[in-house]
Structure of Small ribosomal subunit protein uS14:
Amino acid sequence: MAKISAVEKNKRRERMVKKYANRRARLKAVVMDQSVSLEERFKASVQLAELPRNSTKVRVRNRCEVSGRPRAYYRKLKMSRIALRELGSLGYVPGLVKSSW
């Protein structure tokens, strides 16, 4: 089980990304648009830099929904390999057969 503070910090980042997504996309579009004047593009890049760092999508870490583990994360299932194995052994994941040899 991961530290609760780390999981909560990541959830806070996810909420912040969602909150600033439209504003960030709008500013990035202005910065990338070559037809806009250089002054406006620079002004948009300064406004983009003034947004909170945790509002960027890159700072969100994929974590297991079950245990909060940040490593060995399966995106399709939104859980780590360890949680997947435990739930698979209990028969909670349809179609999953645990192999042993």
